[in-house]
Amino acid sequence: MQIFRDFIYSLSATNIVDMLIITCMIYLILATMRGSRSFQILISLLALALFYVAASRVGLVLTSVIFQYLSAVLIIVLVIVFQPEIREMLDRASPIRYLRGRRAVDTEPDLVEEVLGAVGELARQRLGALIVFQRRERLGDLVLKGKELDCVVSSEILLAIFQKTSPLHDGAVLIKGDRIRAASCILPLSTDETLSSQYGTRHRAAVGLSERSDALCLVVSEERGEVSLVDRGQIHNYSRRPDFRLALRRGLVSEQPRASEARGGLFRALISNWHMKLASLAAAMLLWFMIVGPQRSVGQFNAPIQYTNLPTGVEITGKWVDRVDVRIRGSESSLAKLNPESVRALVDLNDVLPGVNFFRISAKDLRVPPGFKVVDIEPSDLHLSIVAASSKIVKVMPMIEGILPPGSRVLVVPAQVKVRGADDELKKVESAVTDPIKIEELVSARKMEVPVSIRPEGLKIGGIDPLQVTVSLEGQ
Predict the structure, then answer these.
(1) What is the CA radius of gyration of the chain?
(2) Within a 10 A sphere around the Cβ of 106, how many other Cβ atoms?
(3) CATH of domain 297-387
(4) Residue 469's CB: how many other CB atoms inside 10 A?
């Protein structure tokens, strides 16, 4: 009950939109893979994922580690296994398909009569046939074309194709518009175990294709002389010619929806496949709860301040705040995994002027990962002293401890550095010095990398602090 209350407490407009987007993605995946063998593989992978979560929660260390290593190659496995489904899913989700080349094709009455004539004769002769009518969706990824054809649909051609002596009779005929595009095509078989055993390979191929697309399939049974239309995975048998003619016209001819149908279109779209949509919503809510979770915990972080866009010709002087304490709200698990380095404050100095400048850090100035909300910032008010600044070149002086061997000298590379800072402070600087260098160590190493420092504090050397120079011993 407490979990339910936490979930309700965490609901917001942003979280609801987040879950709806994930729901649509899950539904698209399920709708694309439904009825295929890949769907069974997907269910198995989901079961393994749930097992991994459970193993992590109860402390099965070895099992969790092995699953973590396996997850490293999971993306590659998914791409290889689900390549056809991914292509189909992206094609269905693409808005381009609705903008060009996706209009319903109005089928001429002559086409229906030609098909009726051929089907009637095929049924009378007990010749099996399978005809696919392409509608809005492309079938290139689902139909393996046999022989390419491009001819007008006629009963004579259909009868010739499906004669047992024809080399093209084994397979399906693909019709697009009023033309036969290919013959002897291979279709994906349905894996629906509830399909009656009286249906053979032709019916299973028709059901398999109609499950994965909006194609309309016509099947003539060789054993029974029965004529069937398969649409959206459903088989409809017809024994009367007028009923079959009407069903075929409705399936092929694009008609304008009635006003009452148009008004109920959105409602029907929402309730269609309601069980799958409800399952998608439940899965999205579960994912949100597991990954994001109730955002009721608060964590505190000491975040660095990143000052950006400081104009040329000015510099920050004196002491300034370089870190702030930030309190962030999120789920307990997310806060525990949050990298403190991913939290920082940005202060834009683009509009500063010489003198004291005041800033207020708000939530919009904080950079935090998605899923977290900034609760408090301390201190939130900052003041920076900005002064006119310039730069000049000074010599680098090595600080040697000890006596140099006779005939030797110390060489510093680079010998000069650029120092930047406030004009008043810069006038006092004549050189930069290295950190102390023991002569014994320099004689032994012959060459050393040594930091360079500058006084007073607040001055910068070449934009990098500290700067490393190379000190070497020559001679002797």
Answers:
(1) 38
(2) 11
(3) 2.170.120.30
(4) 20
CB neighbourhood size of 26 (10 A): 19
Q: What percent of the chain has pLDDT over 90?
A: 6
176 near 107, Cβ under 8 Å?
Answer: no
Distance of alpha carbon 150 from alpha carbon 139, whole angstroms: 16
Mind listing the pLDDT tens digit for each residue in 117-170? Answer: 998 899 888 898 999 998 877 777 678 878 888 898 899 999 999 998 888 888
Tell me what the mean pLDDT of segment 358-380 comes to: 86
- Residue 213 tokens read as 């697309």
Same fold, 109-252 and 297-387: no
Provide mean pLDDT across the span 203-220: 88
The CATH number that domain 109-252 falls under is 3.40.1700.10
In the CATH hierarchy, which top-level class contains the domain 398-475?
mainly beta
Q: Are strands 227-231 and 216-220 parallel, antiparallel or unpaired?
A: antiparallel
| Average confidence (pLDDT) over 264-286 | 72
Cα(469)–Cα(454) distance, integer angstroms: 13
Mean pLDDT throughout 420-444? 85
Largest CA distance in the chain: 118
Residues 6+ apart with CB under 8 A from 460: 315, 419, 420, 421, 454
Quick one: which of 229, 203, 199, 200 has its CA closest to 216?
229
Whole-number mean pLDDT of the chain?
Answer: 79
CA end-to-end distance (rounded Å), the chain: 84
Residue 366 has φ and ψ, to the nearest 5°, of: -90, 135
